Amino acid sequence: MAAAVLAAGVGELAAAVVAPASSPFAVIGAALIDLAPPWAKDTAIAWFGTADKIALLVGIAIVMLAVAAGAGLLEAARAPLGEVVVGASAAVGVVVAVTRSDATGIAWLPSALAGLAGVIAIRYLVRLAVGSAPGAVPHQPPVDTEVPRRRFLAWTGAAGVVGVLALIGGNLARAGERAVTAARDALGLPAPAVKAPPVPAGAELDIPGLARIVTPNDAFYRIDTALVVPEVDPAGWSLRIHGMVEREVVISWNELVSLPLEESYTTLACVSNPVGGTLIGNAKWLGYPIRELLARAAPSADADMVLSTSIDGFSASTPLDVLTDDRASILAVGMNDEPLPIEHGFPVRMVVPGLYGYVSATKWVVDLEVTRFDRSTAYWTTRGWSARGPIKLQSRIDVPRRGQGLTAGDTVIAGVAWQQHVGVSGVEVQIDEGPWVQASLAPAISDDTWVQWSLPWTATEGSHLIRCRAISATGEVQTEERAAVAPDGATGWDERFLEVFS
After folding, report:
1. Is the omega angle on the peptide bond into residue 24 within 30 degrees of 0, that is, cis?
2. What is the per-residue DSSP string for 281-320?
3. Does 132 have pLDDT greater than 60?
4. Can you name the residues that pair with 18 across neighbouring β-strands?
5. What phi and psi, each to the nearest 5 degrees, are found at residue 212?
6. Residue 33, SS3 per DSSP
7. What is the pTM assigned to this prediction?
8. Which residues are paired to 317 by β-bridges?
9. Spatial contact of 246 and 297, defined as CB atoms under 8 Å apart
10. Which pLDDT tens digit goes with each residue over 147-174?
11. Is residue 20 classed as helix, strand or coil in its secondary structure?
12. pLDDT tens, 481-502?
């Protein structure tokens, strides 16, 4: 296990210096994400939320230590079979690293160095262990049986400590990440040619516990497949538009930001957001309309889809008509009056009102292929999810909060409701299976954003059940029917059981 920690540290430190996207943890984790069936992804998000990537890395570390322990026992009993296990594990990392879509010419190096360090360490440490242990394995190759136990403990401890320090150093020494962070910090976004309308007076109800009408960048949910956030220098970024078009278009960062950029408020939601979930947020975006760039390329009349691809290989299938109508579908460069945060797609991402993120909100986007749904499939559609993901009408109860210790008396029930690019005209609340009561709806920023709602309530002592449902601008009433997030988004009424005390 100490040898494995040393190997991991060497691999991560090497990756930080030469190929950040090819760290052994990152490439193995990315491969597991790619291979995971939809139910596994849903379970991870349901259990861990936006900490799903941390949970995956911890899981990989636990499995790595278990494999290492087994390799050590195997090495002690039948050397060099333990070394073979370690070397084979490293070989898997090498193969995965060089076959990633964002692999560089030296993507193999971090896993190879990790494997070399692991093989050398397990060979030496196991021999020290066997040689210093009472009753050493009889058929073990000759070892120095005079080596004292303290020498074994010292070398094992040193290997573990060096490995941990290398892991820490690798995370601190990601030169590419520092360079991209510096480039982002130095950017000055151009003034928008079209400013977003101001947030209407009264749109923010300012109720404690209620989600803010505009989500701060550091509180905005993050769900994507990138274990290591891609480091994209805007100076080297470009977007290619090709496929079923009359002419191919390539645009650079400088060309993009010199265009007349537009501001707009749009609420983004993840298809994995359960009823009442928090994988949703609203922000002010700055970008350029995708329809204008597509017009340059002149899509073929029989094209019906745009396959957008991230620099790390993720892809999304977006209906062409959604990207060419009058909605604010943009290549975004700014978020809430600052450059995009790196983890939210810096330097450029897609923002498309009315669709779940898995078919529209590609981060670190570098490629738009105009094609057809019957010819191309995207990352999640190949894994069983719907090819088209229109946002479903939803509402959520934010307050009273669960477990807040509510006391009898006057209080308020409040939450948010949304159906981007359709709009919400009302929200109704039901208390204890009683009649549905119309809640007060705050002014919406636009049909592309969520809206806050509230209802005064005189809470009485005892147990209570409250539910909410939204009504869309077209008159649709949110369905009671419960549906899982797969394959195209959850449905059902959000409900909350409360205990009110005297």
Report:
1. no
2. EEEEEEEEEHHHHHHHH-B-TT--EEEEEETTS-EEEEEH
3. no
4. none
5. -70, 150
6. helix
7. 0.81
8. 307
9. yes
10. 567 888 888 889 889 988 888 887 776 6
11. helix
12. 999 999 999 999 999 999 999 8
